[in-house]
Specification:
Blueprint: H1 7-12, E1 19-24, E2 29-32, H2 34-42, H3 68-86, E3 92-100, E4 103-114, E5 124-131, H4 133-147, E6 164-166, E7 171-173, H5 174-179, H6 192-198, H7 203-214
Antiparallel strand pairs: 1-2, 1-5, 3-4, 4-5, 6-7
């Protein structure tokens, strides 16, 4: 099978950190770099599944994890790659999850058409794959944290004596009012003024501690 690029180009893709493959115009896999092979093996995918000479359009999506991946693979991913090869789409980029052995792996996929000269016939496409699981988990945790954050009203009706907040339903302690609306948690202590008021017998200890710091 003829190669799309010269040996120098075929060797160059192995120096790119992202997983990468080059496919011909009919979808046949022409080149696969070592990072893509390592990524596949890391997640339990047999090296025989993605190899040179196999058509991308004939891969079995079930080999990549759960059956839910088939819908994305057949209805979104493959049609987008075909459109790039036919010139009806300029490029393709998507991030998607793959469930494999009880774990969710997030992959960023990008595809670009390949031509020898600008404006000439499309000869194939280069497709890159990046494992973004670590970054996606951080994004999901941040979204979850933000979803529990509530913007407080400009005026909060609070009792001048007991400091309970008046909500639509009842009077609520200020601690629970804030904890139910913001990602915070209160811990309790007693300030020196309250210790002197509630436990006057200990006030001399506070005065002694204050005097020792001044010295």
């Amino acid at each position: 099978m003829p190669k799309i690029f010269s040996p120098s180009w075929n060797d160059a893709i192995h120096y790119i950190k992202s997983g990468m493959m080059i496919i011909s115009r009919d979808g046949t896999i022409d080149q696969i770099n070592e990072p893509l092979k390592s990524m596949a093996e890391k997640h339990g995918i047999s090296p025989d599944i993605i190899t040179q000479g196999i058509s991308l359009f004939e891969l079995n999506p079930n080999e990549f994890g759960s059956s839910s991946y088939r819908v994305f693979f057949e209805e979104i991913y493959l049609p987008s790659i075909r459109n790039i090869l036919q010139g009806s789409e300029p490029d393709y980029i998507a991030e998607y999850p793959i469930d494999w052995r009880g774990k969710t792996i997030w992959v960023l996929c990008e595809a670009q058409p390949l031509t020898f000269n600008q404006g000439s016939r499309i000869e194939g496409a280069v497709i890159s794959f990046s494992d973004i699981t670590r970054f996606k988990k951080k994004e999901i945790r941040l979204e979850q944290a933000l979803s529990h954050t509530c913007t407080l009203p400009g005026h909060v009706p609070i009792c001048a004596v007991c400091k309970h907040v008046h909500t639509d339903d009842a009077w609520e302690p200020v601690e629970s009012y804030l904890e139910n609306r913001m990602p915070i948690e209160f811990t309790h202590d007693i300030c020196p003024s309250c210790i002197r008021r509630l436990y006057p017998s200990y006030s001399s200890v506070l005065d002694e501690d204050h005097s020792s710091r001044d010295e």
